[in-house]
Write a structure and sequence with these properties.
Layout: H1 2-33, E1 36-50, E2 53-60, E3 69-72, E4 76-83, E5 91-94, E6 120-126, E7 132-138, E8 148-154, E9 170-178, H2 183-193, E10 202-205, E11 222-225, E12 230-237, E13 244-248, E14 253-258, E15 261-268, E16 270-273, E17 278-284, E18 291-298, E19 311-318, H3 344-351, E20 368-380, H4 387-390, E21 397-403, E22 406-408, H5 416-421, E23 454-456, E24 459-462, E25 467-474, E26 483-487, E27 492-499, E28 518-519, E29 521-524, E30 528-535, E31 540-546, H6 549-554, E32 557-562
Parallel strand pairs: 1-4, 3-8, 9-12, 11-19, 20-25, 22-23, 24-32
Antiparallel strand pairs: 1-2, 4-6, 5-7, 7-8, 9-10, 12-17, 13-16, 13-18, 14-15, 14-17, 18-19, 20-21, 25-30, 26-29, 26-31, 27-28, 27-30, 31-32
Length: about 575
């Protein structure tokens, strides 16, 4: 018997050895398949003509939109950014987890100081465990109005999409906004007056307004398809301030992914994306060979707020269509119906359809249960300001915004991550409130005494590995609104959404802990709430903010300081040598 035991022990040790060897080989092969991609981004002023007018716009490499970057899951990106423009700039890689590489995340004065005119900085990071569509954009002032592009993450080499039918072709669809002015001048004027900024003059698809605008038909974007094909559209809302509906005439869209995570497929005729969000859809060439408009227009949930009420178009053109071989300017494409601008019911039906596919890892035992109000506010006119010209908010006030009554103020001499890493005092505090300082009827008639938030650079500290739940509650201060809230450095599960005031006694019964969608940007419903969960497994300083840029300009943001864990693999990397100085 002892002999058999010895033989078994030897075989067990050998099996363990060979299993370990196989795992090492598999890891090595995986690393061998991964690639490093090198790019140069030159930030520069470029003459761009839209809506009959040419203006110098800030671009990357003279392109608007900027270059599309394509990688595989597991690859590394190395992007050298040279600033030849007259403004400070940073680049944010929207939705990339940036595991331990927070120095490459990009938000100005949060993870880095800006790249000054004439300066440069190289972003280095690896994309791990993400597949689908993300994007990159400037994260300084309003430069992202023209400085943005798609970031496409294909499956690992040798793998395919988890779709029943593989797409024949793929097309990035970048929705944007265009001003007949320098967007920096637009936001500076709004900051001076304290009022709302001018609305955009057009929406765009891949940088072009489309047939419904003046001087635009000649450059309307054409998206090819052929009869019998199934194609993948990667839709990104890169607009500055506007949630957008998107649809294609006579065609159904099968949603298969969002924010670089796969979802259980569902079919819809219309999408709604808040700024920052991405949605991957399959479209089949199952209609008569012809030309069909793709169209996008505003979803506007805020009452009595000015917005751009125009419609941008591109053309889905069948390759076998008679128009494909010649100029068919006289043959108008078929126009799709679009929801009315305030169709919240359609938005709710769409957003509630998202479910994760595959195994989920939703935290159940919660260490940090947080409740954040999000919304606008009004500051009284300072005594030294001219009320008529510098206080153009309602009743002679200035617009502001906040989370938990704290209007976020960015530092100017150090980045938050630099101050944390070097233990520099006086740059920020870690007393951001876990709950609203005062409870009130968040979506009802709010007392004017709650309209004025407190300015501050307040962060919330999280221990490494904390299991976090956040209730994000819209408020009706000034006006209620759908807020796209983006968290840097993390994906999170959206476990519930609803209208009215969140009820901690009854609303947890609505939690989806089985297959909730995994996103990096959640559209908090107008006059409603959303609940998200994540594990704080990425050390650093991570911004959470409304992705309506007018709102982050007013202070609708906060940041999490996630402490290092144990050892090197649970700690943020050292800052790169070329990190810009303030």
């Amino acid at each position: 018997m002892e002999v058999f035991d010895n033989i078994f022990a030897i075989n067990h040790r050998c099996s363990s050895f060979f299993l370990g060897l196989l795992l090492l080989l598999a890891s090595a092969l995986s690393l061998a398949d991964a690639k490093s991609h090198y790019h140069d981004f030159v930030i520069q002023a470029t003459p761009v003509k839209r809506l009959c007018k040419t203006q110098n716009s800030i671009t990357v490499n003279g392109m608007f939109p900027g270059p599309t970057l394509e990688v595989n899951n597991g690859d590394t990106l190395v992007v050298n950014v040279v600033n030849k423009a007259r403004y400070n700039v940073t680049i944010h890689w929207h939705g990339v987890r940036q595991m331990r590489t927070g120095w490459a995340d990009g938000p100005e004065f949060v993870t880095q100081c800006p790249i000054r005119p004439g300066g440069s900085y190289t972003y280095r990071f690896t994309i791990q465990g993400q597949e689908g569509t993300l994007w990159w954009h400037a994260h300084s002032s309003w430069l992202r109005a023209t400085v943005y592009g798609a970031l496409i993450i294909h499956p690992k080499e040798g793998s395919s999409y988890p779709f029943s039918k593989q797409p024949k072709r793929e097309t990035a669809i970048l929705l944007g906004e265009w001003w007949n002015a320098d967007p920096i001048d637009v936001v500076r004027e709004a900051t001076r007056t304290g009022g709302t900024p001018n609305s955009s003059d057009a929406y765009t698809i891949n940088g072009q307004p489309g047939d419904l605008y003046n001087c635009s038909s000649q450059d309307t974007v054409i998206v090819p398809i052929d009869s019998g094909e199934t194609n993948l559209l990667r839709v990104v809302n890169s607009a500055l301030n506007q949630p957008l509906f998107f649809t294609v005439a006579n065609h159904k869209l099968t949603v298969v992914g969002a924010d670089a995570s796969y979802v259980k497929p569902f079919t819809t005729s219309v999408l709604m994306l808040g700024p920052g969000q991405t949605t991957d859809v399959l479209i089949s060439g199952d209609q008569n060979p012809s030309r069909y408009y793709m169209a996008a227009r505003a979803y506007q949930s805020a009452q009595n707020a000015p917005f751009d009420n125009t419609t941008t178009t591109a053309i889905l053109e069948y390759k076998s269509s008679p128009c494909a071989a010649k100029n068919c300017s006289s043959n108008k494409p078929i126009m799709p119906p679009l929801p009315t601008f305030n169709d919240t019911a359609t938005v709710t039906a769409f957003t509630s359809s998202f479910k994760s596919t595959g195994k989920t890892f939703v935290p159940t035992d919660i260490d940090e249960s947080l409740f954040f109000t999000v919304g606008l506010g009004l500051n009284p006119c300072p005594p030294n300001f001219n009320k008529s010209s510098q206080c153009q908010g309602p009743n002679g006030t200035r617009f502001t915004a906040s989370m938990n009554n704290v209007s976020f103020v960015l530092p100017s001499n150090f980045s938050l991550l630099q101050a944390h890493h070097q233990r520099i005092q006086g740059v920020f505090t870690t007393d951001f409130p876990a709950n609203p300082p005062r409870k009130f009827d968040y979506t009802g008639n709010v007392s004017r005494s709650l309209f004025t938030p407190v300015p501050g650079t307040k962060l919330y500290r999280l221990k490494y590995g904390s299991r976090v739940q956040i209730v994000l509650q819209d408020t009706s201060i000034v006006t209620s609104e759908n807020h796209p809230i983006h968290l840097h450095g993390y994906d999170f599960y959206i476990i519930a959404q609803g209208f009215g005031n969140y009820n901690p006694r009854t609303d947890p019964s609505k939690f989806n802990l089985v297959d909730p969608p995994l996103r990096n940007t959640v559209a908090v419903p107008v006059n409603g709430w959303a609940v998200i969960r994540f594990v704080a497994d990425n050390p650093g300083v991570w911004l959470m903010h409304c992705h309506l840029d007018v709102h982050i300009t007013w202070g609708l943001a906060t940041a999490f300081l996630v402490e290092n864990g144990v050892g090197e693999l649970q700690s943020i990397e050292s800052p790169p040598e070329d990190l810009p100085l303030c």
